[in-house]
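Format notes (please read before filing issues)

Several people have asked whether sequences and structure tokens are stored in separate files. They are not. Every record keeps both together, in the order shown below: the sequence lines, then the token lines. Line labels are part of the format and must not be stripped during preprocessing.
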Amino acid sequence: MNIQPLLDALGIQEDAALALADDLRAQITDLQTRLREAETHLKHLVITRKTVTALSERLPAHPAPTDLPEHPDHPHILALFNEATSPLRARDVCEALDHELLPKNIEGTRAKLKRLVKLGILTEVDAGSFTRKQ
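Then the structure lines:
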């Protein structure tokens, strides 16, 4: 009986199993490296959080602005910015206040927003885009 074909078939399977094992070992090594990097990054984030928290406790509290100009829209504008998740434009604010979207109303709203920027309540992140100052 000639067992050479059987031995050849076993050799092919052994080579394939060896290649698979080598590939899996390489993947494990790569994953272990990536895990170490992720754990290091996580440690750094924890340290950063502790540092920022400790520093924030030393900062003086921002008092509520008392020199807010008298205008019936200002409380509504500030409430809008307190709830906003992204910067707002004068047109957005005008629309939220149910003002007619006329150029004079949009420009008036823009002037109010610019005034609030000068008072340090809002900030202009891009030309015409406003957000609550942090």
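For reference, the curators noted about this record: Residues 124 and 130 are 4 Å apart (CA to CA). The radius of gyration is 32 Å.
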